[in-house]
């Protein structure tokens, strides 16, 4: 089919040329730096969400509730 061979080296070369033509060679390093910073922030935030105490599933929240007698 059309994408049988996947990406070949000349595909990546064409993509690089198009990016340089669209954004210019001066803006590409800044764009890559901003993208890297955003990915680091995203990774640290997802790690913090996983490690955060008080999430659903803690023993205090999953304990059966008792009904007080009148």
From TrEMBL:
Compartments, as annotated in UniProt: Cell membrane
UniProt entry tagged with the keyword Transmembrane: yes
UniProt membrane topology term: Single-pass membrane protein
Keywords tagged on the record: Cell membrane, Membrane, Protein transport, Translocation, Transmembrane, Transmembrane helix, Transport
A Pfam family matched in the record: TatA_B_E
Alphabetized InterPro entries for the sequence: TatA/B/E (IPR003369), TatA/E (IPR006312)
Segments for region (Disordered): 46-70
Family: Belongs to the TatA/E family.
UniProt subunit comment: The Tat system comprises two distinct complexes: a TatABC complex, containing multiple copies of TatA, TatB and TatC subunits, and a separate TatA complex, containing only TatA subunits. Substrates initially bind to the TatABC complex, which probably triggers association of the separate TatA complex to form the active translocon.
Role summary: Part of the twin-arginine translocation (Tat) system that transports large folded proteins containing a characteristic twin-arginine motif in their signal peptide across membranes. TatA could form the protein-conducting channel of the Tat system.
Protein name from the UniProt record: Sec-independent protein translocase protein TatA
